[in-house]
Amino acid sequence: xxxxxxxxxxxxxxxxxxxxxxxxxxxxxxxxxxxxxxxxxxxxxxxxxxxxxxxxxxxxxxxxxxxxxxxxxxxxxxxxxxxxxxxxxxxxxxxxxxxxxxxxxxxxxxxxxxxxxxxxxxxxxxxxxxxxxxxxxxxxxxxxxxxxxxxxxxxxxxxxxxxxxxxxxxxxxxxxxxxxxxxxxxxxxxxxxxxxxxxxxxxxxxxxxxxxxxxxxxxxxxxxxxxxxxxxxxxxxxxxxxxxxxxxxxxxxxxxxxxxxxxxxxxxxxxxxxxxxxxxx
Amino acid sequence: xxxxxxxxxxxxxxxxxxxxxxxxxxxxxxxxxxxxxxxxxxxxxxxxxxxxxxxxxxxxxxxxxxxxxxxxxxxxxxxxxxxxxxxxxxxxxxxxxxxxxxxxxxxxxxxxxxxxxxxxxxxxxxxxxxxxxxxxxxxxxxxxxxxxxxxxxxxxxxxxxxxxxxxxxxxxxxxxxxxxxxxxxxxxxxxxxxxxxxxxxxxxxxxxxxxxxxxxxxxxxxxxxxxxxxxxxxxxxxxxxxxxxxxxxxxxxxxxxxxxxxxxxxxxxxxxxxxxxxxxx
Lengths: 281, 281
What we know:
Two copies of one chain form a homodimer. By secondary structure, chain A is an alpha+beta fold. The first copy, chain A, has one domain (2-273): oxygen-dependent coproporphyrinogen oxidase. Chain A has eight helices and nine strands. The first copy, chain A, has helices spanning 2-36, 82-85, 144-161, 165-176, 201-226, 233-252, 255-262, 267-270, and strands at 43-48, 53-61, 66-79, 97-109, 116-125, 129-138, 178-179, 184-185, 189-196.
């Protein structure tokens, strides 16, 4: 009994550590983004999940450099529906009970030469526990040098975790962020991982933290490099066109969006990912 | 045998009549829209359905009054997948064989005071045969008088068919064009009907033709009345915001869009419905 009690206590500690990290990362990212912004700052809105427990905080900035960027954190718990628990590892064994905490970020940039970006990491607990997440780059005008920098920075974080992790998570990302009806990739990729549970929670958590840190190193230099580049109405029209593809992917295919919309999640938080200005010309 | 042969011949004649009507209605609508347009005309593009039979013609106009309007016709035939035929009346009994012909229209208007509109009518044949369709109005700024005119014109067509038809099809429309995750209607309604088969094909076909004619009488006066109204950047911003809702409905819920995208339909024709300029501010 003592051993089980201690294990449960460890698990509660782990949940708290993860939740605290997602919040700390949110603060760090918001500060880094505000440092690149010339006008505006993040506005935070709390929300509470009903009828079940938990909630979150949306942080939204509408600026000059960051045309629209949302950085959301949430920690929720409750019970998955009978239908849904079949799709989630360990949920049936547990009567559908779950706990989930995470951070989710989407930035749509004013300048067509600064790539849009998405980042998300999360910890999920059913009768099992795991991490998931990733980050991917969505430039209207892909620049080889930028794509290389983004990927290499993530590769370093992955290789600190496992030698094969980058290849595996890069491939997963390419497969996930693909728009079948357009026969095209949503962006230029990044990494995507799910069901991460090596048996060593501390090691997995360290990786997730590393991905969060690597995200800033991978992305902020691309903002700095491109945010003052001159652009024309035509560049901007192309940006809006590419954002249409981004919206198509999120509304038709994205698992998180579909799940959230159809199970009564916080709609404002879920759809914060949609572009501020877009076009199907 | 003679009786069955004659019935089959009737059925082939009916398919031809329906297909010819959808084409004639397309021509009539395109002419009526071009008469209201100050700049631009419809450009037609044919497409062929592979590997199975049939195809269609997209007609697209990007004008000053009609910012983006698509009027598509198609006649296709083939075999539904094992999974899909279970959802379609009469398809299992027939080895999944189907024939379908129809017209589909979406108009996004430049002036925020001219409502966007959608109209579609179709004839489907499996081992059964029926009509479906409807039309609904999507104003950024609902005007009571316009909504009343639109509904009353459709009501007259419905009442020529059956005394209860308008109430039934109006309700169906309100239920169908509802955005659950926003808890709001997509627009101000209209009519929606499906599986229409009274046993008297000629009567049902006459109703479908009547709906097509009524559409023009219901909509063209709203274009004429509102197209020259002055508007501001704020009106235009609100129009773009409402178009975001339209895109959300079509990409997340619309059965035709979902079906088309996931079964290899003509993507350009299916997504012609998406707004030329929209925003999630």
